[in-house]
Specification:
mainly alpha, 3 helical TM bundles of succinate and fumarate reductases, 0% strand
Protein backbone atom coordinates (compact mmCIF):
# COMPACT_ATOMS: atom_id res chain seq x y z
CA UNK A 1 0.00 0.00 0.00
CA UNK A 2 2.82 2.41 0.89
CA UNK A 3 4.42 1.81 -2.50
CA UNK A 4 1.13 2.53 -4.24
CA UNK A 5 0.65 5.75 -2.28
CA UNK A 6 4.15 6.90 -3.18
CA UNK A 7 3.42 6.18 -6.84
CA UNK A 8 0.40 8.51 -6.72
CA UNK A 9 2.28 11.19 -4.76
CA UNK A 10 5.05 11.14 -7.36
CA UNK A 11 2.49 11.37 -10.17
CA UNK A 12 0.87 14.39 -8.48
CA UNK A 13 4.28 15.95 -7.90
CA UNK A 14 5.13 15.49 -11.58
CA UNK A 15 1.78 16.87 -12.76
CA UNK A 16 1.89 19.96 -10.56
CA UNK A 17 5.45 20.68 -11.71
CA UNK A 18 4.10 21.16 -15.24
CA UNK A 19 0.48 22.16 -14.62
CA UNK A 20 0.18 24.76 -13.17
CA UNK A 21 3.69 25.58 -11.88
CA UNK A 22 5.51 25.14 -15.20
CA UNK A 23 2.86 27.09 -17.10
CA UNK A 24 3.15 29.90 -14.56
CA UNK A 25 6.93 29.90 -14.97
CA UNK A 26 6.62 30.43 -18.73
CA UNK A 27 4.01 33.14 -18.25
CA UNK A 28 6.19 34.85 -15.63
CA UNK A 29 9.21 34.80 -17.95
CA UNK A 30 7.16 36.28 -20.81
CA UNK A 31 5.74 39.08 -18.63
CA UNK A 32 9.18 39.91 -17.23
CA UNK A 33 10.62 39.93 -20.75
CA UNK A 34 8.66 43.14 -21.35
CA UNK A 35 11.58 44.77 -19.51
CA UNK A 36 13.54 44.51 -22.76
CA UNK A 37 11.10 47.08 -24.15
CA UNK A 38 11.96 49.58 -21.45
CA UNK A 39 10.70 50.71 -18.05
CA UNK A 40 7.21 51.72 -19.16
CA UNK A 41 6.69 48.46 -21.04
CA UNK A 42 7.59 46.36 -17.99
CA UNK A 43 5.57 48.49 -15.56
CA UNK A 44 2.46 48.24 -17.74
CA UNK A 45 2.78 44.43 -17.89
CA UNK A 46 3.44 44.18 -14.14
CA UNK A 47 0.47 46.46 -13.34
CA UNK A 48 -1.79 44.38 -15.58
CA UNK A 49 -0.84 41.21 -13.70
CA UNK A 50 -1.16 42.92 -10.31
CA UNK A 51 -4.69 44.12 -11.12
CA UNK A 52 -6.12 40.83 -12.34
CA UNK A 53 -9.51 40.06 -10.72
CA UNK A 54 -9.32 37.56 -7.86
CA UNK A 55 -5.52 37.78 -8.04
CA UNK A 56 -4.94 36.63 -4.45
CA UNK A 57 -7.22 33.61 -4.88
CA UNK A 58 -5.58 32.73 -8.19
CA UNK A 59 -2.07 33.08 -6.75
CA UNK A 60 -2.93 30.99 -3.70
CA UNK A 61 -4.61 28.04 -5.41
CA UNK A 62 -2.89 28.05 -8.81
CA UNK A 63 0.64 29.06 -7.80
CA UNK A 64 1.54 28.97 -4.12
CA UNK A 65 -0.20 25.80 -2.89
CA UNK A 66 0.85 23.64 -5.89
CA UNK A 67 4.35 25.11 -5.67
CA UNK A 68 4.52 24.40 -1.94
CA UNK A 69 3.55 20.76 -2.41
CA UNK A 70 5.94 20.35 -5.34
CA UNK A 71 8.78 21.88 -3.32
CA UNK A 72 8.21 19.89 -0.11
CA UNK A 73 7.76 16.55 -1.85
CA UNK A 74 10.60 17.43 -4.21
CA UNK A 75 12.92 17.84 -1.22
CA UNK A 76 11.87 14.41 0.00
CA UNK A 77 12.69 12.93 -3.42
CA UNK A 78 15.99 14.82 -3.63
CA UNK A 79 17.28 13.62 -0.26
CA UNK A 80 16.09 10.02 -0.59
CA UNK A 81 17.21 9.50 -4.19
CA UNK A 82 20.14 7.18 -4.83
CA UNK A 83 22.50 8.76 -7.33
CA UNK A 84 24.77 6.28 -9.12
CA UNK A 85 26.72 8.45 -11.55
CA UNK A 86 29.93 7.05 -10.05
CA UNK A 87 29.00 3.62 -11.41
CA UNK A 88 26.88 4.59 -14.40
CA UNK A 89 27.88 7.99 -15.76
CA UNK A 90 25.26 8.02 -18.50
CA UNK A 91 23.55 11.18 -19.76
CA UNK A 92 20.24 10.32 -18.07
CA UNK A 93 21.93 9.52 -14.75
CA UNK A 94 23.56 12.95 -14.85
CA UNK A 95 20.19 14.54 -15.64
CA UNK A 96 18.66 12.62 -12.74
CA UNK A 97 21.24 14.01 -10.33
CA UNK A 98 21.12 17.55 -11.76
CA UNK A 99 17.33 17.53 -11.46
CA UNK A 100 17.67 17.04 -7.69
CA UNK A 101 20.46 19.63 -7.34
CA UNK A 102 18.63 22.20 -9.47
CA UNK A 103 15.47 21.60 -7.45
CA UNK A 104 17.19 22.62 -4.21
CA UNK A 105 18.80 25.67 -5.86
CA UNK A 106 15.46 26.63 -7.41
CA UNK A 107 13.67 26.38 -4.07
CA UNK A 108 16.18 28.72 -2.42
CA UNK A 109 15.98 31.18 -5.33
CA UNK A 110 12.17 31.18 -5.57
CA UNK A 111 11.78 31.63 -1.81
CA UNK A 112 14.13 34.63 -1.87
CA UNK A 113 12.51 36.11 -4.99
CA UNK A 114 9.03 35.83 -3.44
CA UNK A 115 10.34 37.46 -0.26
CA UNK A 116 11.90 40.35 -2.19
CA UNK A 117 8.86 40.97 -4.39
CA UNK A 118 5.51 39.53 -3.32
CA UNK A 119 6.08 39.75 0.44
CA UNK A 120 7.54 43.24 0.05
CA UNK A 121 4.49 44.21 -2.02
CA UNK A 122 2.22 43.01 0.80
CA UNK A 123 3.95 45.55 3.04
CA UNK A 124 3.45 48.40 0.59
CA UNK A 125 6.37 48.13 -1.83
CA UNK A 126 5.62 48.59 -5.52
CA UNK A 127 6.79 45.77 -7.79
CA UNK A 128 8.08 47.71 -10.78
CA UNK A 129 11.11 48.27 -12.97
CA UNK A 130 12.88 50.38 -10.31
CA UNK A 131 12.54 47.61 -7.73
CA UNK A 132 14.19 45.02 -9.97
CA UNK A 133 16.80 47.51 -11.15
CA UNK A 134 17.78 48.20 -7.52
CA UNK A 135 17.91 44.49 -6.67
CA UNK A 136 20.06 43.62 -9.69
CA UNK A 137 22.39 46.60 -9.30
CA UNK A 138 24.39 44.44 -6.87
CA UNK A 139 26.82 42.16 -8.77
CA UNK A 140 26.21 39.46 -6.16
CA UNK A 141 22.43 39.61 -6.60
CA UNK A 142 22.78 39.67 -10.39
CA UNK A 143 24.90 36.50 -10.22
CA UNK A 144 22.42 34.95 -7.74
CA UNK A 145 19.48 35.73 -10.02
CA UNK A 146 21.33 34.44 -13.08
CA UNK A 147 22.09 31.12 -11.38
CA UNK A 148 18.56 30.97 -9.98
CA UNK A 149 16.84 31.66 -13.29
CA UNK A 150 18.96 29.14 -15.22
CA UNK A 151 18.49 26.53 -12.48
CA UNK A 152 14.71 27.05 -12.44
CA UNK A 153 14.44 26.77 -16.22
CA UNK A 154 16.63 23.66 -16.28
CA UNK A 155 14.55 22.06 -13.53
CA UNK A 156 11.38 22.71 -15.51
CA UNK A 157 12.75 21.60 -18.89
CA UNK A 158 14.38 18.43 -17.56
CA UNK A 159 11.32 17.72 -15.43
CA UNK A 160 9.22 18.01 -18.57
CA UNK A 161 11.16 15.08 -20.03
CA UNK A 162 10.40 12.99 -16.93
CA UNK A 163 6.76 14.09 -17.05
CA UNK A 164 6.41 12.78 -20.61
CA UNK A 165 7.88 9.42 -19.57
CA UNK A 166 5.99 8.97 -16.29
CA UNK A 167 2.64 9.87 -17.87
CA UNK A 168 3.15 7.44 -20.77
CA UNK A 169 3.51 10.09 -23.47
CA UNK A 170 7.00 8.97 -24.52
CA UNK A 171 7.36 5.21 -24.09
CA UNK A 172 9.72 4.22 -26.90
CA UNK A 173 13.47 4.96 -27.08
CA UNK A 174 12.88 7.02 -30.24
CA UNK A 175 10.16 9.15 -28.66
CA UNK A 176 12.32 9.70 -25.58
CA UNK A 177 15.24 10.77 -27.79
CA UNK A 178 13.00 13.26 -29.60
CA UNK A 179 11.74 14.47 -26.22
CA UNK A 180 15.34 15.03 -25.12
CA UNK A 181 15.98 17.33 -28.09
CA UNK A 182 12.67 19.10 -27.51
CA UNK A 183 13.32 19.75 -23.81
CA UNK A 184 16.87 20.93 -24.54
CA UNK A 185 15.29 23.39 -26.98
CA UNK A 186 12.84 24.53 -24.30
CA UNK A 187 15.75 25.08 -21.91
CA UNK A 188 17.73 27.13 -24.45
CA UNK A 189 14.80 29.31 -25.56
CA UNK A 190 13.56 30.06 -22.04
CA UNK A 191 17.12 30.69 -20.81
CA UNK A 192 17.62 33.29 -23.55
CA UNK A 193 14.35 34.94 -22.50
CA UNK A 194 15.34 34.90 -18.82
CA UNK A 195 18.90 36.18 -19.28
CA UNK A 196 17.82 38.92 -21.71
CA UNK A 197 15.34 40.06 -19.07
CA UNK A 198 17.99 40.25 -16.34
CA UNK A 199 20.30 42.31 -18.54
CA UNK A 200 17.41 44.64 -19.40
CA UNK A 201 17.25 45.70 -15.74
CA UNK A 202 20.90 46.79 -15.69
Amino acid sequence: MAGKQEFYWRRLHSLLGVIPVGIFLMQHLVVNHYATGGEESFNNAADFMANLPFRIVLETFIIYLPLLFHAIYGLYIAFTAKNNIGQYGTFRNWMFMLQRVSGVITLIFVAWHVWETRVAAAFGAHVNFDMMENILSSPFMFAFYTIGVISTIFHFANGLWSFFVSWGITVTPRSQRISTYFTIGVFIVLSVVGIRTLFAFI
